[in-house]
Design a protein that fits this description.
elongated, 11 helices, 5 strands, 294 residues, alpha/beta
Length: 294
């Protein structure tokens, strides 16, 4: 938006046309992707807007103060902030449109009640551009050729220091459930799957890779406890349905182990914190299992 206004008021019509066409191409691509995967054009964007803005339901996932991003970013990347922030501010003098776009975006997401670090990802490319402009303004006019050539490598090494520290983080927290989903999807006899996790935490059909019905735990925040989303079977109903012959549970949960065992499931394999159970597709649950909760 900031770049568009800049092109408009500076009379750069051709640039504005190219920007508009690029924006429309991105919208159409996203819309067609949603149409193919969700069945509705721009489904993701419209549902996101309705959920977060119209209904304001994002607050049920947690509320943070306005300075959340500043504090978290400083604690996690203080060394990078010391180096990058001055360059971004210096770069404002030359690429003020880009950098004011950064400020505007950060202001908007800081005013939003529910905050997550991943919400900063869209602005990271702009931060890199602003830092690069500031770096060029500071070091691009050095009179010493050797120092001028060495400056980019020195800056890269300094920025790698905080990045190296991030190797200690677990960047694949959902690896076990995704691996389990893929393993079930690879089984020729799989006709239905029960997953003792909410849909958003399971990896979904992307990892399953097979068009079979899946019953999930309901989102404990978005839906009433024990209630399946409209059009979907609950776990209790799925366990009583013979076609659901695979189940993924949380390792160590004796209640989940007992529940699937009562419906004819036996342990098939384990992937870290996830256990995969299966049963013959024709196995029928005991009559007394009806009416059980998840």
């Amino acid at each position: 938006a900031a770049i568009g206004l800049y092109l408009l008021f500076t009379g750069r019509g051709s640039g504005l046309v190219r920007l508009t066409l690029g924006f429309l191409a991105a919208v159409v691509t996203q819309g067609l992707l949603d149409l193919a995967t969700w069945g509705h054009f721009l489904h993701s964007a419209l549902v996101y807007f309705h959920y977060n803005v119209v209904e304001g339901r994002s607050v049920v996932h947690g509320v943070e103060p306005w300075h959340f991003y500043l504090v978290r970013f400083w604690k996690a990347y203080w060394w990078m902030t010391v180096l990058a922030a001055p360059l971004v501010f210096i770069g404002m003098w030359r690429s003020w449109v880009v950098n004011y776009g950064i400020v505007l975006y950060l202001a908007l997401i800081s005013l939003t009640a529910h905050k997550e670090i991943r919400f900063m990802l869209p602005v990271l490319p702009l931060l890199i551009v602003g830092m690069a402009v500031g770096f060029e303004m500071c070091f691009g006019r050095l009179r010493y050729p050797r120092l001028k050539r060495a400056a980019p490598y020195l800056m890269a090494c300094l920025l790698l220091v905080p990045l190296a520290d991030q190797t200690r983080n677990n960047w694949r927290p959902g690896m076990n459930i995704c691996t389990a989903m893929s393993a079930v999807g690879a089984q020729p006899d799989a006709t239905g799957l029960v997953v003792h996790l909410p849909k958003y935490a399971s990896g979904g059909y992307f990892h399953l890779g097979k068009n079979i019905p899946v019953a999930y735990e309901p989102d404990p925040i978005a839906y009433t406890a024990g209630q399946a989303q409209e059009g979907e079977l609950s776990i209790a109903e799925a366990l009583r349905t013979p076609r659901f012959n695979y189940a993924i549970i949380n390792a160590g949960r004796q209640d989940q182990r007992a529940l699937v065992a009562r419906h004819g499931f036996t342990l098939w394999t384990t992937f870290g914190s996830r256990e995969v159970y299966r049963r013959p597709a024709a196995a029928l649950p005991p009559e007394e299992g009806k009416g059980e909760g998840r």
